[in-house]
Design goal:
This protein has 159 residues and is α+β, with helices and mostly antiparallel strands. 37% of the residues lie in helices and 14% in strands. Helix 1 packs across helix 2.
Length: 159
């Protein structure tokens, strides 16, 4: 398995995002967030652990939980009961991105999960889904989280 290596810009961005989110900046959190920022897809706990072999498992779980609670990363649950973590897309103007308000693509062969860039999705997608929710179930229903997953084969698996 190919391991991720965070880049210096990812390290600087991770440090800045942690400070802006108001969470304690630690080496573990910087390392984990840097790895997530360096990837174009969501990573499982084991993939993050492979990229940061010096980090113990408990510290890694705590860092992932902290990043998720702070809105700097999000947790995607898969059919295989494995959680994957991603930063989604780069936050605009230094602000943490709204998490879970974008779709995902999951390859059903290799199980990799990719975030779909929410900037490319119609701005009214959330409103359309909310309208469908209310027209189907009635007034008063309000969504707070949208989880949209498109399943298929990634470019590597479809060859």
């Amino acid at each position: 398995m190919k391991t991720s290596r965070s880049t210096p810009p990812a390290h600087a961005s991770a440090h800045s995002q942690l400070q802006h989110a108001g969470v304690r900046v630690t080496a573990a959190r910087i390392g984990v967030l840097s790895v997530l920022l360096s990837e174009q897809r969501a990573l499982s706990h084991l993939e993050v652990q492979d990229a940061l072999p010096a980090l113990d498992r408990v510290t890694l779980y705590r860092a992932l939980d902290c990043l998720t609670a702070a809105g700097l990363a999000h947790k995607i649950s898969g059919d295989d009961r494995v959680f994957r973590y991603s930063t989604g897309s780069e936050p605009a103007s230094g602000q943490p991105a709204l998490q879970h308000q974008h779709g995902h693509f999951k390859c059903t062969r290799c199980e990799r999960v990719f975030c779909l860039d929410h900037a490319q999705q119609p701005a009214s997608l959330r409103e359309q889904l909310q309208a469908t929710l209310q027209s189907t179930l009635g007034r008063g229903f309000q969504s707070h989280d949208i989880a949209l997953t498109i399943k298929g084969w990634c470019a590597d698996c479809s060859e």
